[in-house]
Amino acid sequence: MTASGDDAPDRRQRADRGRAGHVEAGVVDHRTGHWTGVGAVAFVFGGLGIALREPALLLAGVVGAVFTGYARSAEPIPVRDPETGEPALSIRRRLEPDAPEPGEDVTVTVELRNEGAGVLTDVRIVDGVPPALDVTDGTPRHGAVLRPDEGVTYAYTVTATRGEHDWRPAQITVADPSGAVERETTVDAPTTLSCSLPALTSEQLPLRGLTTPYVGRVDTDEGGSGVEFFSTREYRSSDPLSRIDWRRHAKTGELGTLEYREERAATVMLVIDTRQAAYRAPEPGAYHAVERSVDAANRVFAALLDTGDRVGVTTLGPASEECWLSPGAGDEHRAHGRALLNSHPALSPIPPDEGLFETIRDDRREQLKDRQVTRLRRRLSADTQVFVFSPCCDGYVPTVARRLDAHGQLVTVLSPDPTTDDTPIRELASMERADRLDGLRGEGIRVLDWRDGESFAAALARAQARWSA
């Protein structure tokens, strides 16, 4: 991907001398002040050299005066070729890999090239990294001396987050050889990093038994069509021949019909905690709990649809960014769900400016919390299972889970762990979170505690073993 950018020739304008800077069509010319005071020092040295008849002092004064005069007369370096009018600088970016998964490292290689005919003695670049991407290795800043038709290449690493991330124009500063005058401009090279969420195989997603009128894979306590033997019953004339118990007929002469454990589809609502309190990570720049929750929700969403289950998505977060996808199935529903999980504003990788109900009085805050839970419960059918994705760093989500469970919803809490124990305060926070999860388990609510650095599949397998024990 390549692009070049600069100020047009008719917009080129120098900064007035003595001014700190001048802005014209995205170009800033300013004096750095690097030579401030040198003229006065040169005058003093020259005066002392004459008074004391010291040639060395006089020479130092003359040299200082020459440099001061040069610096005062310095002009901004043109960033367009004076003969052709073409941009004097261009940049190219290369992303590797160009379609990563969330949390994967991406190497960004930047090439800065002098396309003009003059030497650029001091060029500095700050690349326009998207705000949602953290630089984890190297730096987007670089400096170089560029001769005509010469380029320089440097690289840095970012950690991918879901969605599409557009690079902003790179900030370029070009200084004259004396360093007295700088010209700042931008150079654009349209670059987009697309990061999509992966899927998870359905065999790794256990659901509690329940009944809805759709054939699927959740075992029920009713006989019917299926693959697992359930019971036998008396033969009816409408029964298919394939379900007749021929062994029984051979032994007793009586006809009987085989019943198999019937499977039904599940209706599942995925509820993702997107409050400010959920944007927690073990360390600055690490993969935070909301990103891990969305990643896991995407895997669950795709896997359940693969087996014919009906799945929806919603959030526990600011009401201004309502996110709701009613349970459904089919290819169109799958596309809507993946688009929502990848790009809905309520699921932004960047934390909201304020916490949920943060600016509201305490008494009113509790009322609104109750109202949000009540509204969610009323939008769910009685047989809807609820998967809540939250780090459970405070007591709000465990309270939500208990209230939904008390009203008959089958609730499972999938909790990415963002805590550490490297300091006493963090260890206390980790212990408090563990107590919250143990409290939910003690009330019969399933909990998946997903450790930092552990794959979701491994956490799910570990939870399955605990649930079946």
From TrEMBL:
Domain DUF58: 232-345
Organism: Halorhabdus utahensis (strain DSM 12940 / JCM 11049 / AX-2)
Basic and acidic residues: compositionally biased ranges: 8-23
Domain of life: Archaea
Annotated spans, Disordered: 1-23
Protein name, entry field: Conserved repeat domain protein
InterPro entries linked to this entry: DUF58
